[in-house]
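Support request from a user on the community tier.

User writes: "When I paste my structure tokens into the form, the page sometimes reloads and wipes my input. The last time it worked, I copied everything first. Here is what I submitted, just in case something in the input itself triggers the reload:"
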């Protein structure tokens, strides 16, 4: 058996540095009023002894936990199957790590989970929250507001309980990107352009549908089929489109996963892409867009940067931002359209 090495204490650091315990505490906790030569002595002693601050005691002094809750309003089966969430979480994690903050991941499967998340956020365990993939009837905005912690949302808020006016959020130009996608299809000479939407209880899907309508106007309602941002939803919607409108010659899918499902169904039905039917997605998630058959023309949004910006706004304070930051999108041309 090996003996447990005593953990270095604040007093030991003070003795090594030749300063008072109070001086060490101020330096370790980021306080002001300590001369730079003393700061350097304390830091050197901390490094030599391998001192690690007691986070619980530090939190009592600073009222900070150096932990941020990341709340994804989706079940774990969706979060871990969709590369979108991995990219956004990667961006968030990089920014939090750069500022020595911990990421606490909270997922919601149902109403019981909403209550659990609300209690956790109100319990003073974290310094703020990053929340994304909200649905229109989601109770989370109200629960978070009652928790009273700083929050940045991913995506344009769409709730109607009056909490959205001063909400800080980060989003992409979903409507403008959709317009670019449909204009590209029309520019190719396509006349029967269909749209497979995302889940219409989410603002990103609504905005992309509106962008489609901005270009196509009063389109045949049979050319719009609701999906759910998943490959299976894309397959179901594409089968419905071919049944309703066998002469469809172009499809704008609400995201790359939806487009991948649509491509599989078109191939099953012997439709050549892009000769018979051109297909465009949204996201430009490279593990998907470059590996579909054929490679997918899509609208690129910088998902990882969205995550980083959310975290940056939360950690540094929103400053003059009183509503949304909307990032641009770009058309990426590949072989499908």
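"...and here is what came back when it finally went through:"
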């Amino acid at each position: 058996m090996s003996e447990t090495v005593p953990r270095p204490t604040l007093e030991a650091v003070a003795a090594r540095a030749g300063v008072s315990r109070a001086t060490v505490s101020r330096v370790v906790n980021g306080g002001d009023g300590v001369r730079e030569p003393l700061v350097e002595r304390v830091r050197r002693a901390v490094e030599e002894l391998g001192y690690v601050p007691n986070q619980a005691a530090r939190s009592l002094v600073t009222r900070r936990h150096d932990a941020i809750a990341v709340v994804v309003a989706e079940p774990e089966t969706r979060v871990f199957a969709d590369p979108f969430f991995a990219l956004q979480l990667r961006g968030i994690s990089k920014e939090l790590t750069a500022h020595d903050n911990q990421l606490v991941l909270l997922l919601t499967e149902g109403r019981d989970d909403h209550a659990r998340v609300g209690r956790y956020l109100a319990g003073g365990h974290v310094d703020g929250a990053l929340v994304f993939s909200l649905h229109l009837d989601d109770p989370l905005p109200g629960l978070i507001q009652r928790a009273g912690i700083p929050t940045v949302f991913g995506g344009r808020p769409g709730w109607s309980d009056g909490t959205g006016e001063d909400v800080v959020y980060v989003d992409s130009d979903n409507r403008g990107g959709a317009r670019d996608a449909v204009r590209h299809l029309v520019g190719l000479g396509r006349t029967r352009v269909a749209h497979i939407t995302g889940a219409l209880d989410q603002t990103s899907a609504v905005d992309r549908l509106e962008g489609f309508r901005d270009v196509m106007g009063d389109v045949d309602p049979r050319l719009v089929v609701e999906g759910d941002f998943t490959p299976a939803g894309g397959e179901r919607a594409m089968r419905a489109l071919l049944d309703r409108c066998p002469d469809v010659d172009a499809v704008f899918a609400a995201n790359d996963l939806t487009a991948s499902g649509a491509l599989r169904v078109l191939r099953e039905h012997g439709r050549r892409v892009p000769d018979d039917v051109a297909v465009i997605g949204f996201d430009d998630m490279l593990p998907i867009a470059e590996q579909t058959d054929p490679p997918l023309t899509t609208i690129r949004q910088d998902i990882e940067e969205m995550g980083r910006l959310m975290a940056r706004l939360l950690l540094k304070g929103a400053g003059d931002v009183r509503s949304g930051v909307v990032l641009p999108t770009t058309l990426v041309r590949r072989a499908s359209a």
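Agent notes: The reload is a front-end session timeout and is unrelated to the input. Residues 135 and 202 are 5 Å apart (CA to CA). The mean pLDDT is 87. Escalated to web team.
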